[in-house]
Description:
The chain has eleven helices and 17 strands.
Amino acid sequence: MTRTVAAIVARTPDGPLEPGVVERREVGPRDVRIDVVWAGICHSDIHTVRGDWGAQTYPLAVGHEIAGVVAEVGAQVEGLAVGQRVGVGCMVGSCRDCANCRAGREQYCERGFTDTYGARDADGTITQGGYAASIVVDEHFVLSLPDALPFEKVAPLLCAGITTYSPLRRWGAGPGVRVAVVGMGGLGHMAVKLAVAMGADVTVLSQTSSKRADALGFGAVAHHATSDPAVFDRLARSFDLIVNTVSASLDFDAYLGLLDFGGTMVNVGAPPEPAPVTLFTLFTNQRSFAGSTIGGIAETQEMLNFCAEHGIVPEVETIRADQVNDAWERVLKSDVRYRFVIDASTLKGPSGATAA
């Protein structure tokens, strides 16, 4: 048995998003049904729908920054209750048995984790994401949202927050560590806020100076416009850690030259084309070039608690469901400060009636 709920769906790779419906499974013994309240818009949603990272099955509802309220729990669910504020991020399943899963690194499941949308689920269906009225998720992949975090702002933490928190923790951002953040969009502004809260000395490297005031307001000690090639000479060997948040091709050798001895450039942005790197740039000063995806479930909960403790929330612009196509166009133009969040109460089914 399944349940039909209202959603915003893509029917083709290049057409507009439209009102539609998706099917949700009935709640199993360890499942949680969540009424979606807020759904963040991530650039990954656009990449996925447009086939940048592989062919998709349509119609498809995307969205992996989900904040909602528990509406129903399975008979064997523990620690979650109807009415509780919860979140769902980028994954809704993993094998739970491999070495990485057992270590709490479900995002690196050796059999591949199940994406919140566009993935083959255990029952053979294609997962549908959070641009919908409700979602059914295994309890293991449901996060508790601290009361201190404003409900309308918390959803982007489930992707933008954990995607930047995880590498900052992994590579030791903290007092005395010089961190550069490349790009200051949805991910970048979270990287700045989180690294500052961890005690690091944070510099923003952005193409222009248009967000300089914001960067300094978020606690960065400096902001540099990388459109000026002289910046790379002035900042040579200035950083211990560079977090690259942009999904575009860069002159990676130039950025690697900004690392001091033993420094690491970690990439969380995912351009569709290969990244050219000259190995001699790595040999110099024993630099490292690394990648990081999201975090595991335990680390994501840790991030949420850290944000609640330090008062860290994304900067968001809330929109109605019928504004989503305009919002996507603005994301592509980098015209958002810094994350769009859809008010799920405005979702309508194809007939115009709300389906829950």
